[in-house]
Amino acid sequence: MPANANTPAPRLTLPRWHDLHAHFRQGELLRPLLRAHAAMGCAGILAMPNTVPPVAKVFPGDAAFDCWSIEEYLRMIRDADGGFDDIIVPLYLSENATPEMISAGAKSGLLRACKYYPPRGTTNAEHGRPLDHYMQNGVFEAMAEHGVVLCLHGEEHGLAPENYFDSAANAETFFYRERAPRLAEKFPDLKIAAEHVSTKAAVDFVLQAGENVAASVTPQHLLYTAGHLLQGCKYHLYCLPLLKFDADRAALRAAVTDPRNTKFFAGTDSAPHARKATDCGCAAGCFTGGVAPQLYAMAFEEAGVDLSAPVGQGIFARFLCCNGPAFYDLPVSKETFTLIKEDRNVASLATPDGNIVTLAEGAGLKTLPWRIA
Ligand code: DOR
Ligand code: ZN
């Protein structure tokens, strides 16, 4: 219903939400990026460890190649902005990771999650080792024993271009059809967060797995397909995993809007790149700082959810505010934020690295249909 003088614009008041997958980088970028997240009603964040250098040890004293510890990166985040109730920094799994590091880290309370990056499979992923490495060296065993969540970038690495992105199979479908079932079978107690799922194959894997397996979903994978990226080569829509096909987007929409959804939750994968187009390529990542709840609301409405009705609002709140904290053993925020159904112009974020264009702008939108109160 369009707002006019007589009908107040619909409002959606929700618990402050947790973005359980976002990139805040390092140095002078941290502050503006954290502020953009706080401004969109975030109570908590899971801050990804593919910084430069990566966060690949738990304590500063752990022997390692040039990297930061979780303890150090947490301090950097807190020093840059104290506004979040909950901050989780996963350990970047690399050759450094040992069962002893996992167990000492978990006992200290600093280590809550570990991140698997397919070797060279995405931005700053060159320290990743193949999944089998951790399946065999006791790391996943130690994580399962201590309740440490495995955050999965579920894409097969090193595929030939022909197999990387095909209509019948791609790097993600390969991973969720071939690798993930073996992982779940070998470590039935391991908590697994299938991150930024983009295919029906990944959704199917998560749905048939036990309660210890859940998934985050980004705004871009709910809103767009590969066609949106390719039509006009809108490179601000280029991220990894790549946007997929309509049937994949439909499976994601069905999963997040199912009234019984307990497994799918918000994790934006917001990834700032001040310079997207490089001399002979494109940096992967969609930036959704400041606009993610608005984009998620837009996607739910496109999927047929009526956000002006209590049923629809409940479905949206479960996805945005409840399922994620439940999976990570975090409290749902007691504070609220409000979305109002009013058009708001899109804008980019000024940072010391330059302007960062949001997914909304990059998709060609001039306005968003929701704004944060
Ligand atoms: O699109 C992406 N951008 N995917 C990732 O896995 C990493 C991220 C980044 O750090 O820029
Ligand atoms: Zn990411």
Write the layout of secondary structure elements.
Blueprint: E1 11-15, E2 17-22, H1 30-38, E3 42-47, E4 55-57, E5 68-69, H2 70-80, E6 86-88, E7 91-92, H3 99-108, E8 113-116, H4 131-136, H5 139-146, E9 149-152, H6 161-164, H7 171-186, E10 192-194, H8 200-208, E11 213-217, H9 219-223, H10 226-230, H11 246-257, E12 264-266, E13 277-278, E14 281-282, H12 292-302, H13 310-327, E15 336-340, E16 344-345, E17 349-351, E18 354-356, H14 359-362, E19 367-368, E20 371-372
Parallel strand pairs: 2-3, 3-6, 4-5, 7-8, 8-9, 9-10, 10-11, 11-12
Antiparallel strand pairs: 1-15, 13-14, 15-20, 16-19, 17-18
The structure holds (4S)-2,6-dioxohexahydropyrimidine-4-carboxylic acid (DOR) and zinc ion.
Zinc ion binds at residues 21, 23, 48, 269, 271.
Provide key terms for this protein:
373 residues, alpha/beta, TIM Barrel, six-stranded parallel sheet, three-stranded antiparallel sheet, 20 strands, globular, binds (4S)-2,6-dioxohexahydropyrimidine-4-carboxylic acid, binds zinc ion
